[in-house]
Design a protein that fits this description.
- The protein is mainly alpha-helical and about 375 residues long.
- The chain has one domain.
- The chain is about 70% helix and about 5% strand.
- The protein contains 14 helices and 4 strands.
- The strands form 2 sheets. A two-stranded antiparallel sheet has the order 1-4. Strands 2-3 form a two-stranded antiparallel ribbon.
- Helix 5 runs parallel beside helix 7.
- It is globular and about 60 Å long.
Length: about 375
Amino acid sequence: MKKIYKYKMNKSMTYSLFSFMIISLLSVYSASNLISNNTLVIKQAIWFIIGIFVIYLITRIKNKAIYKHYKLLYIIGNITLILLLLFAKPINNSKAWFNVFGIGTIQPSEFMKIILIITNAMVIYKNKDKKDYIIVLKVFIITLIPAILTFLQPDTGVVIIYFVISFVMLFTSGINRRWFTISILVLLLLLSIFLSLYFYNSDLFIKIFGTNFFYRIDRLLDWKDGTGMQLTNALTGIGSAGLFGFGFNNTPIYFPEPQTDFIFSVFAINYGFIGTVILLLIIIYFDISILKIGISSRSLVEKYVISGIFGMLLYQQIQNIGMNIGLLPITGITLPFISYGGSSLLSYMIIIGLVLNISNTKKKIT
């Protein structure tokens, strides 16, 4: 008798996504009132609806069909980054978005993160029998091209994510650990030289990197002194929220970018320590679910893809929450699935679709 296969949804992913959607809409609504823009929550809801449709499409297309075109995806992704630099109008002094007929914006670097994960996975898999240095060199070049283009926008936060993705994927690929030791030592050396110039010879630093980059680093390092109205006000609000917070849509203190970079602060202020713990538990549950899917997968390519997704999400979660509570520098990195943003939300929905395909178990019906 012919075998029939039934698609099974992963319940843990479904529950997590539904929880994120509720938390995001509540938080974006509160944040939108803080900045007097009541349309944001409607737009976010629309993006979630579109995102669910995207998940459906990904699960219909299947991952193999996507992986097969990884080279084309990589070329298209880099072309869009080049077009940004050539034709995009600056928004907040950054050429990071395309304006779509005046109704919204698209940020290609968000989708480039997924393309990079898929491309790295295929390159590592196809070169798994070659020497380690060949894999490292190819992945480095693949990562460097979009990193340079994104850095020129400028968007330092996404550049860091690119390298985090590649580092995690290489680490889980089974190559000799000495390459990571060498990489870390070289990175520390370059960072030492870079920071020495910044702190002790600013004139030479500006001559080499330019004034604009000097001020970007200056803003990035503001966190070390706990300075800046954004961080100060966010910490004041979180610290005064208590166990249960000030309640829904009650954020008594203003700080910039509450709907994106500082959405975690909005949620913590509204729902206090208890609400924050619940949010963190949902995030941990979601991350562990992805990790389990990767461990149980029999495909090396899928394992590499999961490692890239897991590394990217974990880094963004730690970075965003860390910068909201003053433990890490403010880099403009959003909180996945929670922060407002069409491009970022759609990119995460694509990730959900890929993960659901990997986790899908085929049930034979006779």
